[in-house]
Design a protein that fits this description.
The protein is an all-alpha fold. The chain is built from eight helices and no strands. The radius of gyration is 18 Å and the shape is globular.
């Protein structure tokens, strides 16, 4: 546990342990650690930990709590780093995925289409981030029963994977 005097690197390291537990599916332990870190952390460490707590909330069936944390993280990183920074994009992707899986296709679609447009403008048509945005949008359409709208985005992800991995066996 963190004492009141631990800050900075100690809080960040402790949050890393929580993230390890989260990835192992040990959600209760991870949640406890994240809450301890949030009580003492500041700045990016606090916001990243908050976002990771949102991942736990999402995984444990608390989408409203997750959405609130994702929105806060996205807004923080947007104001600090701008829309084109990778950490902002990651927070934005978490929010879009949650919205799509929760059935808010309109909100998820808006975010994913904005991401796709940014990647195209930056000539990152074949980037992993583009593949994630295309997959997220495709999955959101499929979840909403719009299979014909989702399929082109899922195929686009497959094509990016094949192109970046040199695998043309599926074409």
């Amino acid at each position: 546990a963190l004492s009141g005097g631990m800050r900075g690197a100690a809080a960040s390291s402790y949050a890393n342990l929580g993230e390890y537990y989260r990835k192992l599916g040990r959600y209760e332990e991870a949640e406890e650690i994240f809450k301890e870190v949030l009580a003492v952390a500041k700045g990016d460490t606090k916001v990243i930990t908050s976002n990771n707590l949102g991942l736990i909330y999402e995984a444990t069936g608390r989408p409203e709590q997750a959405e609130e944390l994702y929105r806060r993280a996205f807004n923080y990183f947007l104001s600090k780093y701008g829309i084109r920074h990778p950490i902002t994009g990651s927070a934005e992707s978490n929010l879009a995925y949650l919205l799509g899986q929760s059935g808010d296709l309109h909100a998820a679609e808006k975010i994913y289409l904005s991401q796709i447009k940014r990647f195209e403008e930056k000539d990152q048509r074949d980037s992993p981030q583009m593949a994630l945005a295309a997959t997220g949008l495709g999955e959101a359409y499929v979840k909403a029963g719009k299979f014909s709208e989702g399929l082109p985005y899922l195929i686009r992800c497959r094509d990016i994977f094949n192109k970046t991995n040199g695998d043309d066996d599926y074409n």
